[in-house]
Specification:
Helix content is 28%, strand content 34%. The protein is an alpha+beta fold. The chain has one domain: Tumour Suppressor Smad4. The strands form two sheets. Strands 2-1-12-9-4-5 form a six-stranded antiparallel beta sheet, with no helix packed on it. It has a six-stranded antiparallel beta sheet with strand order 8-7-6-3-10-11, covered by helices on one side. A hairpin with a 2-residue loop joins strand 10 and strand 11. The chain is globular and about 55 Å long.
Length: 225
């Protein structure tokens, strides 16, 4: 998936082409130093297992990716097709959106003591970059304060989310009364049924018990010349 690369300003291209240019740039770095950007990753603790990534999501984010992988070989075209079909299914209350938008019921506790109450959430989603894919930018506060990540608890309906997609693409907040919003350094997410189904950077996971998100280390991402 190229969401992280796009968000950080890495030029587009096929992997082998980017790698070839990077090798050439590395060989001549004494003359022309490599450029890079720094971004923090998130640390996801599930029991005694820790994972790292830039984007975390439950609910409809997990459901969208499950549909995306079901459509065939992953690609930007397949991603756009899946999004278009899910939007259409939302308007007619079709089977696809009902499958995708199965709510995540749980609660979230932030490190400052704030508690997002136990309820049905369309998704609890967070990131240390601003994009989530296809140029949508829900994490407009991701760079607001170093050492934090942007976390959203969206409890509006799937239809309300679709209506707010233009705002999300413009890195603007959703309309009031549709989401909780925070920039914590640490947060604990608990599922009402005890099972967490979530995604990290496009990979699908399942875990029994609570999940703790925290700010991870900084990494340097090379901007291929």
């Amino acid at each position: 998936m190229n969401t992280v690369a796009n968000s950080c300003g890495v030029r587009r291209g096929r992997p082998e082409g980017l790698l070839a240019r990077l090798i050439r740039a590395y060989a001549s770095r004494a003359i022309c130093p490599l450029e890079n950007v720094e971004r923090r990753v998130m640390r996801m603790e599930a029991g005694d297992k820790a994972s790292y990534g830039f984007i975390f999501g439950t609910g409809i984010v997990y459901g969208y990716l499950a549909e995306y992988y079901r459509e065939g070989e992953p690609s930007p075209m397949v991603a756009a097709k899946t999004l278009a079909r899910s939007i259409g299914s939302t308007f007619v209350k079709g089977e696809m959106i009902q499958r995708m938008a199965k709510p995540f019921r749980g609660k979230v506790t932030l490190d400052d003591g704030t508690v997002w109450p136990e309820r049905d959430y369309l998704t609890v989603v967070g990131a240390t970059i601003d994009q989530i894919g296809l140029s949508f930018r829900p994490f407009y506060r991701s760079g607001e304060e170093d050492g934090t990540f942007h976390l959203l608890g969206i409890y509006g309906s799937a239809f309300q989310l679709v209506c707010d997609l233009p705002r999300i693409q413009q890195a603007r907040p959703m309309r009031p009364g549709r989401t909780y919003d925070g920039i914590p350094r640490r947060a604990t997410i608990e599922s009402a049924d005890g099972t967490m189904r979530y995604t990290i950077d496009g990979d699908l996971h399942e875990h029994k018990g609570a999940l703790t998100l925290s700010t991870g280390p900084k990494v340097k991402i090379v901007l291929v010349p």
